[in-house]
Amino acid sequence: MFDPNALLRPHLKNLVPYSSARDDYKGSEGVFLDANENPFGSITDENWNRYPDPYQKELKSAIAQIKGIPAENIFLGNGSDEPIDLLYRAFCEPGKDNVIINSPTYGMYQVSADINAVEVKEVLLTESYDLDVPAINAAIDANTKIIWVCSPNNPTGNDFTLAKIESLLSTFKGIVVVDEAYIDFAERASFAEKLAEYPNLVVLQTFSKAWGLAALRLGMAFASEAILAIMNKIKAPYNLSGLTQRTVLEALKNATEKDAMVAEILANAKELKSALQQLDVVEHIYPTDANFFLVKVKGARALYTKLIEQKIIVRDRSKVVLCNDALRITIGTKEENNKLVEALKNVKN
Ligand SMILES: Cc1ncc(COP(=O)(O)O)c(C=O)c1O
């Protein structure tokens, strides 16, 4: 039976976590002289003088409703970058343990490993940008703690073959993280449905993409209670601001607006794709399950610079492994997409 405590870094086994001021009293009414807050209120119109709920209970129960996932299986972080970092800090001993990434993929798995002095084993995706399971299995050793699986994958845009992800979940003895930052744009159901089946699964999602709340910094990790107990023990006590908690709680009442925006982005994607296909400069548009296209072009770097001159900013991925001559283009509004297409039409290489 998988036990995350067996993977935990030794020095954390007996960690006494910070106990926050409100741990002993849960009520909202009272004379609060325990947290050295300002008793008068704030210098702003709205009052923010009290520390926020460290475990974001109200927000978690609203998210639980929307996602159909028990609140006990939800961790909320300052963007999904926070749970990414926490997983390293919890399970990977610097200079000893390693993780596997499937390149090309989201850059923070590598950066966070570098910050935490953890070795990264890089396995390349196949030619069709799918997981290379035999190569992953060959890379695993006794010190491999985490396999990062980004699906739909950034920057390639595609979902991996789901059976391949499941095969990693069922054979790997460590943690498999399935990063679903772009799941709202994909047609499949979330891996969060499989939490009961795979105790070594962590699913990441975010409010930064489909929900349009990137500036509020709210990421989610869905996992077993045992994994989340470890993450909660080592996180900063008040990791999510009161402003974020309150604003998102309010925003969740407009969940259908998110669906409408996703539908419009997907419709715009179809139009953008057919417009791009007409252009000489475009060589290949990779299939996507996300809100962006990876596009192979003639002279990616020069094109990127020419677009910037016209204040059109895309992401140059041409130096990234397996992404030669590719730009990553986020699907914008109709107007933005038209501007991009016009600029590409007029470009002289
Ligand atoms: C695959 C993937 N995961 C996570 C993130 C980070 O999301 P957040 O804004 O929640 O930190 C991104 C951002 O681009 C991403 O592409």
Describe the fold and architecture.
The protein has a 7-stranded mixed beta sheet, sandwiched between helices. Helix 3 packs across helix 4 and helix 9 packs parallel to helix 11. It is of the alpha/beta class and 349 residues long. It has helices spanning 4-7, 57-67, 81-91, 108-115, 133-139, 162-171, 225-234, 242-251, 255-277, 300-309, 334-346, and strands spanning 74-77, 98-103, 119-124, 144-150, 175-179, 201-206, 219-222, 282-285, 292-297, 315-316, 326-330. The N and C termini lie far apart (59 Å). The longest helix is centred in the C-terminal third of the chain and has 23 residues, at 255-277. Strand 2, helix 4 and strand 3 form a beta-alpha-beta unit. It is built from 11 helices and 11 strands. It binds pyridoxal-5'-phosphate. Pyridoxal-5'-phosphate binds at residues 79-81, 106, 150, 154, 179, 181, 206, 208, 214, 219. Pyridoxal-5'-phosphate is lined by residues 79-81, 106, 150, 154, 179, 181, 206, 208, 214, 219.
Q: Give the overall silhouette.
A: globular
Average of per-residue pLDDT values: 97
Total number of strands: 11
Gyration radius over CA: 22 Å
Q: Any low-confidence stretches, pLDDT <50, length ≥5?
A: none
H/E order of the elements? Answer: HHEHEHEHEHEEEHHHEEHEEH
Any descriptors?
349 residues; alpha/beta; four-stranded antiparallel β-sheet; 34% helix; binds pyridoxal-5'-phosphate
What's the quick description here?
The chain is an alpha/beta fold and 349 residues long. The protein is built from eleven helices and eleven strands.
